[in-house]
Amino acid sequence: MRFKDVIGQDEIKAKLVQAFKENRVSHSYLFYGAPGVGKMALAIAFAQYLSCENKEENDSCGHCPSCQKYEKLVHPDLHFVYPHLSQGSPNKATSDTYLDLWRPMVNKSPYFSFRDWTNNLQSENKQCMIYAAESESIIKKISLKTYESDYKIMIVWLPEKMNAECANKILKVLEEPPLNTVFMLVSNNREDILPTIQSRTQPIKVLGIADEPMKHALIERYGLSEEDANDIVKISNGSIIEARQQIEQDEENAFNFENFTLMMRLSYAGKVPDAIELAKSLAKLSRERQKSFLEYSLIMTRENFVRNKSLNLAYLTKDEEAFASKFSRFINERNVNEFIKIFNDSYYQIERNGNSEIIFADTIFNIMRIIRL
Ligand SMILES: [Zn+2]
């Protein structure tokens, strides 16, 4: 990852490059700030830059042998430490135990959340930490001489999740690491890091990504229109992770809208064979998405009822509003409770693992009955 691939954060990039040029690279950095602002991306890009054999003015070259290894995160002088599950009693697992899960995730995008990682680990509710066993591994790795590069890099993701025993054992190497070893700590919650660790690092506060680079990234990487990108920028607080969640939610919403309007049109027209096809296609979705569709149907029912009563509402998208302008007259005080009961019952049955094809067919036929009265 090169600096140019890191979204925004130009000031910090310049500061890091400057530190190298003036020969004052610190032996340990603490990048801290909210999730999704690019702390990990900055750390990796900086590490690649330090190690690059053919540096450009303000970035790594991207194609020397070192950069090629960095682009795949397989450089032998680059090490990662991160929270993980324990194995055995006492725990024998270290970060390396989970490297085959870690590396593809970071390679795919250095903008990931703690939840993305624990989902990847399938940790369910088990605790993920950096355990005492890690300290030996860290000390061993940094005491070896560098293989190929001038710099040996140790990126520690979420040092706030390091247990005290591990933290105490690495204090000495954090304070006085061997020559050209650089620790890069990447933290979401600086306050939760032990003060003894904090005091041995140079802090770099990473603020939210500025609006312009964020907008460009959303257009280029997620294929959003300029208008949609502007909307997402406003609500994402400079975090790519928040932006991504919002995009996914918008997509889910659009998908539910399409199916909801289709369901109502088919019901109104009394098209039984098409209704059965729709039930079949809904039955193919995951249970979570089926529930999301029924929740959406409940919300739309309430919104359209409220609209029919000419009360103010401001929760609909443009498409939903256009649909509601024609549809809301079908939802009135005589049938609104019946609609709500249909969707609630279906939700309950889906949750209880009922046959979803039958449940959705039933749902649509019930709607057909009410709407055609
Ligand atoms: Zn290079």
Overall description:
The chain is an alpha/beta fold. The chain has three domains: 3-208, 3-Layer(aba) Sandwich (Rossmann fold), CATH 3.40.50; 210-238, no CATH class; 243-371, Four Helix Bundle (Hemerythrin (Met), subunit A), CATH 1.20.120. The chain contains 16 helices and five strands. It has helices at residues 10-21, 39-51, 65-71, 99-108, 114-121, 133-143, 164-175, 195-198, 211-222, 226-235, 240-269, 272-283, 287-308, 318-327, 336-351, 356-371; strands at 28-32, 78-81, 152-157, 181-187, 202-205. It has a five-stranded parallel sheet, sandwiched between helices. Helix 7 (164-175) links the parallel strand 3 (152-157) and strand 4. Helix 13 (287-308) packs antiparallel against helix 15 and helix 15 runs antiparallel to helix 16 (356-371). The longest helix has 30 residues, at 240-269. It is elongated, with a radius of gyration of 27 Å. It starts with 9 loop residues before the first helix and ends with a helix. Zinc ion binds next to helix 3.
Global morphology = elongated
> What percentage of amino acids are in beta strands?
5-15%
Distinct ligands, ions and cofactors found in the model: zinc ion
Distance between the termini: 62 Å
CATH architectural grouping of the largest domain = 3-Layer(aba) Sandwich
| Annotated CATH homologous superfamily of the largest domain | P-loop containing nucleotide triphosphate hydrolases
SSE ordering: HEHHEHHHEHEHEHHHHHHHH
CATH class of the largest domain: Alpha Beta
CATH topology-level fold name of the largest domain: Rossmann fold
**Order of the strands making up the biggest sheet:** 2-3-4-1-5
Output the radius of gyration: 27 Å
Average per-residue pLDDT, rounded, comes to 93
What is the count of helical runs?
A: 16
Major sheet: size, sense and barrel closure? 5 strands, parallel
Q: How many DSSP-defined strands?
A: 5
